[in-house]
Amino acid sequence: MKNKTDLNYQKTNIYEKRGDDYINLAEDYSVGYKKFLDSSKTERDCVKKTISLAVENGFKEYDFGMEIKPGDRYFYNNRGRSIYLFRVGSEPVDKGIRILASHIDSPRIDFKQMPIYEDGGFCFAKTRYYGGIRKYQWLALPLALHGVIVRKNGETVDICIGDDENDPVFYINDLLPHLAQEQSEKPLAKAISAENMNVLLGSRPCDDCDSECECKIKQNILKLLNKKYGICEEDFLSADIFAVPAGKARDVGFDRSLMSAYGHDDKVCAYPSLTALFETGDSSHTVMVVLADKEEIGSEGNTSMKSELFTDIMGAITESLGGNIYKVRANSKCLSADVTACFDPNYAEAYDPKNTTRINCGVAMSKYTGHGGKSSTNDAPAEYIAWLRKIFEEAGVVWQAGDMGRNDLGGGGTVAKFIANHNIETVDLGVPVISMHAPYEIVSKVDVYSAHTAFSAFCRL
Fold first, then answer.
1. What's the predicted TM-score (pTM) here?
2. Cα atoms found within 13 Å of the Cα of residue 461, Cβ hemisphere only
């Protein structure tokens, strides 16, 4: 029986609970994470970076029909926008697969199919925002362009402009406060029109255009694009061009305990998933890491977590190892590795203080997400959470529990419910984030390292 002083449960700040050795490990880990972020701003970027890391760690590309055996390490590149990695363990596959599932898409600004136009002495690109953004946060902000343009002959042209210090950046205009009285009186959600969130491309007219040309600035931009990339305006019909915040991940605060970057949601869980997989090579369990696309827009499409590819790969692994897919799914366990809201004292009224996550208190488990009365969520069972508690205690993982915020204020979802629908035990476990979905989000270095230790324990024990 516990002592009276042990009967209460409270979150503990890692800086107060762990010594300098742990803090130094977290600091070192953050260096690799920031490099990963800087090269993974979009899902396409992230897949390329992940493949590079996987090959460095002995993984080979997988194709359906290949024979696999214990000890094998494979990755499956799904159209360059999502990726599956798995390492085959020594125990029978019927004992289940340990699954870490994150998403690698983040809120951003997408170019429309016919984006480029001229107006009022400027050239702009028409856009459609992607995911749950607060529109005002994306105005008057240096932006970079990432993506691909695919010509009719199938040739792919990679686009990456704005992150090198010698590159130009791009911009969405804001209205000056001197003329914004009417705008300022509107509700925040309606003050900025999505149709006005056009990316500024330039203002210089073409030097040698015909005198009767009505779009000399647009023509100049198209000439520059043709010279650099060999493309014409029609090629934008088959393009994925995304405007994302320019610049690199940075330390925050005098003590450098925090990190600011674009795309913490959800690469702050994707990276620890990868490092856990790479660093637990002696595990007896078969382990799979899924880095999915399209979570920010409901997980629709063939690169999302709803895709049948997930069960196809599980089925192929099971068949090759002589297992029973029904037993494999029933015995598998998953961590839906996604971020959660972190208590912010500047907006304390949005949280339930007893049931929210705190900065520097470790990776956070959310038994349920969803909206209102637990709508659209996976509500993880007590038995599974107890099993994880035991594993984390044995491994010395610092973790905490918490949900998204105050009842009926809003909510959010993850990929957890789609995985649980396949008869796989699943719960959300991820890093607490300040200013989630903003162009620059904040996380704690020790919380990120805590996620790595938790995911490693899940893969190993």
1. 0.96
2. 17
